[in-house]
Amino acid sequence: MADPKPVSQQVEEETTTKDEVKSNKQSNDWFDALPWTIKGSLKALGLDDDLEGVINWIENSPAGNLLEDVIADLKQTARDLKDDIIGPDAISFTVKPSAITGDNDRNDAHNSSLRYPNDSILGSTDYMLFQFFRYQPPFGGQGVVANLTGEGTGEYDSLSEYNRSVSALKVDTQLNQVVLYVPPDVTSTYGAEWSDQSFSNTAVAKVRGGMALRDGNVIGALQGQVENGLNAGGRLPEIAGADFIRNQVASATGEQLSRNDLFSSSAGVVLNPNTELLFRNPQMRTIDFTYKLVPNNQAEAEIIFEIVRTFKMCLHSSFGIPGKQQGRKASNLGSILNIAGKAESKVGFISVPSVVKFAFMQGGGLHPFLPQYKTCALVSVDVNYTTDGQYVVTRDGYPVATELRLSFKELKLVYREDIRPVGPSTFKQGNKALHGGH
Asked: What CA–CA distance (Å, rounded) separates 324 from 174?
């Protein structure tokens, strides 16, 4: 699989600085798909409007909608087949052309972007790019080709293989890219879980003796165990006496006292806890963003509506096969998949929601100094339509301001190699790794 072009080159080639979202325009894919020679001839004869009207009527009829759904599903099936054999494409950060609001893209929405503000000049500003992908089970394999090379068939043998299920993903073709301004509160929190653990004197001796044996120090290990045995024998009268008194108190009054309760209250000592602070595991990162979206015109109001709806759709599961237009099994195909054992095609299952890969961008590439995150699950979408404490809408019914609060959680842990990849120093150029975090 060929590596994607550099991010800066992709953006320069495919992102213009003069794109504007066209308000209230309905795209007619069938008519637009006609060769320009035919459309030019029809326009010369004055028949282009008539034919477009007929095509538009057919396209919006029940039969036309069904045909478009079938075509969209066939295209999705072809994409899935390619991904099952070759594997999903690596994530790239090409900003797609501006979307046309009101257009029913079916399974091609990922080829356009919803932008707020819609007049942003992306080539010279900082912004955030959100892309949406279908969840890839971490142990579900990455295509026949990857399995033949050994990836996806055993335990993780490299960090890249561990990250593969969040760096090579099937795109969610029903959701547009989203481009938003950098929010005012950009923070990156890192955490590791450490906790204290107490060991008895005998446990300390056993562990240390075992490690000495591993290192080949047989004499030292035996000497340590003998010493521990002698010390335990010396402590035995006090411990046995404490246990006897505990039992007597419990039978007489029902009070449950520990050995240390008796040692502390009678002799002013306690058993040595041998407490150590031990590392448990790194913590997953949680990321929150808050946006206040205020439309300057009707076009931006429509874009804000679509942006909010996109995140809500990403958060929720699909009923039936992921990526399909119809919320049910795909008739005969679904029966075949049932026999093959695919769980997502069986009655009683719903799909796992889509996941999000977002990035801080600077002009045509990743921002060199702001943190970059691995692919995330969208765990919360909060929308406030009355940000000023009262209900106010435009003449068309759009809210005059919308507050959008998003909460994400990374799907993978961050390791040291993600922060500073092996290779040339990142001190001067910042982190250019596409899928790491720092």
From this structure: 9
What is the domain extent for residue 12? Answer: 7-22+61-191+284-316+353-419
Higher per-residue pLDDT: 327 or 368: 368
Comparing CA positions, the residue from 417, 432, 414 lying closest to residue 368 is 432
Nearest-angstrom CA–CA distance, 304 and 298: 10
Residue 285, Cβ density class (10 Å: 0-12 exposed, 13-18 middle, ≥19 buried) = buried
Do residues 372 and 437 make contact, with C-beta atoms less than 8 angstroms apart? yes
Locate all alpha helices (DSSP H) within 215-347, ordered by sequence: 218-253, 259-267, 298-315, 331-340
435 lies in a domain?
no
User: 79-88, 209-218, 373-382, 425-434: which has the minimum mean pLDDT?
Assistant: 425-434
- The pLDDT assigned to 164 comes to 84
Contacts of 425 (CB under 8 A, 6+ apart): none
State the Cα torsion 240-241-246-252 to the nearest 10°: 130
User: What was the pLDDT predicted at 33?
Assistant: 58
Is 156 in the same domain as 261?
Answer: no
pTM: 0.76
276 and 288 fall within a common domain? no
Residue 246 lies in a domain: yes
Q: What distance in Å separates the CA atoms of residue 76 and residue 321, rounded to the nearest whole number?
A: 11
